[in-house]
Every structure is written in structure tokens, then in C-alpha cells.
Write a structure and sequence with these properties.
Length: 423
């Protein structure tokens, strides 16, 4: 029985949201149809793009609202949504993926890797999955995801990794990015949604979440690196061959870093960071000899995905908030982890922040559960579509199996569960 206050648009939106979730788990099926039915290959390829799924169904929802509630109500709802996060992720992806930024971070990673007494390829792989996710606490999770995914793609995925290692790497990357942004109160989207209202500063995050997340991130990266060390060591020769290239002047790299810092500093002010981004585009064009192709297409697709999630998620409050209230903290932790797999974890914590009079145990459980489950699916955490857009080209049919991702993410998720509940 539905609560009395539930409206028809909310029920319709939930049904469409459920279809969209099922669609994300069916992209490989549409990719197969594109090969089996070449006459309609364009349509099937479109529906096989994970980044298109939520944007597509958001259009279906808005069209339905036009029919059910009328044009004014549909337009008012759309204009009431906050699209700052999709815009920010698009901008930070493009800037973080620029050649000077990537080369700067890669040079730092290689310098640190040289100090670790193992084959350099193995050390670089470990740092991509341990150091870079923790760096996300300072440059934001979307930027860390972009950098880590690009380094893994260029250094390893393009050199014939086994399918098993590709899925294990992707699952661990998603989990480590999700929990690795909790050292501060501004870098992880689910933390950002509650930090101001619950008065959580960076010191609070570091003492209650950050050190536990850091332990889990390092353990996850260490175990996976050790388990696949022989396959990774075999890639060291191929990786070394990729290191030659155009030298990036220190001044150019420094200016790119300043652009990145400027966007992060004004992450909540789209008028400012979009202005910074347009200036960046002009600078990149002026010094295009130091650039490769900017990932504008990938960034726009990810923004489209997240914008669709914002539109569809805005009408899910009626059942999510009911589910979260009146639950014992430990049960709530696992419930939040599970719900995150089928909703965006930032939306989950935002709805939790609307519940008045909650205990500190409730607050810890909901946020810890939200970041723990952030690697289980593509939709669980805002940076995940960015990583998928960069890495999916290395998979068969350029498509990642949602079930394969889920299974790969479960072991590192269990480590995160232990860290947040037992430490």
C-alpha cells in the first residue's frame, strides 16, 4: 500500500527509475543486438552506452510529466533541479585529463614508484590504486578518478591485460575512489551533501572516516597488486616504451594546475568554474602543441548521465526516506550500502540530511554505508561514469558487464565494511 501523500508523478518517476536501473544492467544485451541486427545498429549502440541510459530515461520522465501534469509543472520541476554536480564533473574531467596535468601526476607517481623495491610497473599500478584515490580527498573524487583511469588505461589496459585483471582493477578503483575521498569534508559527493548541515569539518572527517578509509584503500591496492604481480611485471617493458613524448614546460604545467585548483575552489559556483573552464579552453588552444585531444565527448556523456540521475532521483524521496528512518545503526549501514548500488550515494545522504533529530550513530552509519557501496555499480557514485567512459574501450565490445563489475567490487567492499565497522 502506498503512503497517502504519494502523488502520481512520484509513482511514475519511481517506475521509470527502476526501468533505468534495469537498463544499466542490460547494456551488454543492447551491444549484442547492435551486432545481431545491423539494420538498427545505431539505435542499439545508443542504448548500449551506459552514460546515455539515465539521460534517455530522464527525457522519458519529462515527456510523461508533460502529459500527466502539464507543461508548467514539468518545466518547473526541471528548473528546480540543481545541475551543478554534472557541470562540475564535466569541467574537472576535461581539465584533469589534459596532457600537462596527466604528465605531472604521472611523473610524481613514477618518482615514488622508483623508491619502492619492486618492478616499477608493479609499483606504479599500486600507487594508481592507492595514492591517487587518497589524493581525491584534496582534488575531488572526479578528478582523482579521471587521473587514475587515464594512467591505468595508458600504462596497463592497452597492453593486453587479462579480462579477470581488468574487472578486478575497475571494481577496486571504484571502491577506493568512493572511500578515498573521505579524508576531507568537501571532496566526496555523499559527504558534501551533509557536511554543512551536520557541521562536519575536515578534522572530524579525518578522525572518524579518513584514517579508516586510508587503511582500507592501501590494503585493497596491496592485495590486488600482490595477487596479480606476475602479470603486471610482464607489462613493465611495454609501459617503459610509452614514456617518451613531448616535454611539457614547467610553466605550462603550473598554469594547468592553477586551472584545476581554481575549479576545485569554486566547485559550488558554476558561474565561476564555467568561466575558468572557458579560459582554460582558450589557453589550451593557444598552446595546443602541449595538448592531446581534450576528452570533451567523454565528459559531456558523463555529465548527461549524472544530469539524468538528478532528474530521475528528485522524485524518489517518498520511498527512500521511509526506508531510512527507524532503522538500527548497524542495519542502516548495510541498508545504505545496498541502496547505494541502485541509487546515487550523494542522493542517499542528501535525503538522510532532511530527517530531523537523528543520532550521531545514524549519521555515521548512513555516510559510511553510502561511501562503502560506492563501487558496486556505475550509478553508485558520481565519479564512476567518468572512470567507465575512459576504461570501457579496453573491454570486449567496449562494454562492461554490470554483474562482472559487482562481483569484482565485492571483495574490496568487504574490506571497507570491516574498516568502517571494526576499526
Amino acid at each position: 500500500m502506498l503512503p497517502a501523500a504519494v502523488t502520481a508523478p512520484e509513482v511514475i518517476a519511481t517506475a521509470i527509475f527502476a526501468i533505468a536501473v534495469v537498463h544499466t544492467f542490460s547494456t551488454k544485451f543492447f551491444a549484442h543486438l547492435a551486432h545481431a541486427q545491423p539494420r538498427h545498429a545505431g539505435l542499439w549502440h545508443l542504448l548500449a552506452e551506459v552514460e546515455v541510459v539515465f539521460g534517455f530515461w530522464a527525457f522519458v520522465l519529462i515527456g510523461t510529466l508533460f502529459w500527466v501534469s502539464g507543461k508548467p509543472a514539468a518545466v518547473d520541476y526541471l528548473e528546480s533541479r540543481n545541475f551543478t554536480e554534472p557541470m562540475f564533473v564535466f569541467v574537472i574531467m576535461v581539465i584533469a585529463a589534459s596532457r600537462p596535468i596527466l604528465h605531472t601526476v604521472m611523473a610524481a607517481v613514477r618518482a615514488l614508484a622508483a623508491m619502492i623495491p619492486v618492478r616499477r610497473a608493479v609499483a606504479v599500478y599500486f600507487l594508481c590504486l592507492a595514492l591517487v584515490p587518497l589524493l581525491g580527498s584534496f582534488i575531488t573524487e572526479p578528478a582523482a578518478m579521471t587521473l587514475a583511469a587515464l594512467m591505468l588505461r595508458d600504462g596497463f589496459f592497452r597492453h593486453g591485460l587479462s579480462t579477470r585483471l581488468k574487472y578486478a582493477t575497475l571494481g577496486l578503483l571504484f571502491v577506493n575512489i568512493s572511500i578515498g575521498g573521505t579524508l576531507t569534508n568537501f571532496a566526496a559527493p555523499p559527504v558534501l551533501m551533509v557536511a554543512a548541515k551536520w557541521q562536519w569539518d575536515t578534522l572530524f572527517m579525518l578522525s572518524h572516516f579518513g584514517w579508516k578509509a586510508a587503511v582500507a584503500v592501501v590494503i585493497n591496492a596491496l592485495v590486488l597488486t600482490w595477487f596479480f604481480r606476475h602479470e603486471l611485471a610482464a607489462k613493465s617493458k611495454a609501459q617503459s616504451a610509452d614514456e617518451a613524448g613531448v616535454r611539457i614546460p614547467a610553466g605550462v604545467a603550473a598554469i594547468h594546475v592553477l586551472f584545476l585548483i581554481g575549479v576545485v575552489a569554486f566547485a559550488h559556483h558554476p558561474v565561476v568554474f564555467m568561466g575558468v573552464f572557458l579560459l582554460f579552453l582558450g589557453y589550451a588552444e593557444a598552446y595546443k602543441q602541449y595538448q592531446e585531444r581534450l576528452i570533451l565527448r567523454e565528459g559531456l556523456l558523463v555529465a548527461f548521465f549524472l544530469a539524468g540521475l538528478v532528474v530521475l532521483g528528485g522524485l524518489q524521496r517518498w520511498w527512500l526516506q521511509e526506508t531510512l528512518t527507524g532503522v538500527e545503526p548497524t542495519v542502516l549501514y548495510f541498508l545504505a550500502t545496498a541502496l547505494t548500488a541502485v541509487t546515487d550515494n550523494a542522493a542517499l545522504t542528501y535525503l538522510a540530511s532532511l530527517v530531523e533529530g537523528v543520532t550521531s550513530e545514524f549519521k555515521y552509519a548512513i555516510v559510511a554505508g553510502a561511501v562503502t557501496g560506492g563501487g558496486l555499480t556505475v550509478i553508485a557514485n558520481a565519479p564512476n561514469p567518468a572512470g567507465l567512459a575512459i576504461l570501457k574501450g579496453s573491454f570486449e565490445d567496449e562494454s562492461v558487464s554490470p554483474l562482472g563489475l559487482l562481483l569484482a567490487a565485492l571483495p574490496p567492499t568487504c574490506v571497507a565494511v570491516f574498516a568502517f565497522l571494526a576499526l
